[in-house]
Amino acid sequence: MKAVVVGIQEVDYTSRKTGQPVKGVTLYCNYKDAQVKGDAADGIFVSDNLGIDFVHSLQPGDVIDIQYNNRGYVADVNIITN
Fold it and tell me: Alpha-carbon distance 25 to 35, whole Å?
């Protein structure tokens, strides 16, 4: 899914449910959706466990391609333009 980054939030906390650390980045993005008039917007969490280090250096305006696995979680992120 092609999306434009409009905001970035660093995430670093310990889950109350599992007691495990949660680290990563929430990318706030706009993207085209056939069922939405205009652009759709979403917050997309990218875990540090994926090993995609460049997500921490993304800037608003960067265009990315997000790949999801069969469970609907982010599997990969690629930069289209920055």
Answer: 27
Q: Which residue in 38, 55, 54 sits closest to 46, CA to CA?
A: 55
Reported as a single tens digit per residue, the pLDDT across 35-82 is 999 999 999 999 999 999 899 999 999 999 999 999 999 999 999 976
Residue 6 — very low, low, confident or very high, per pLDDT cuts 50/70/90?
very high
Q: Torsion-angle region of residue 5: left (phi > 0), alpha (psi -120 to 50) or beta? A: beta
Which two three-digit tokens encode residue 42?
A: 């979403």
DSSP 17: T
Largest Cα span, the chain: 41
Length of the chain equals 82
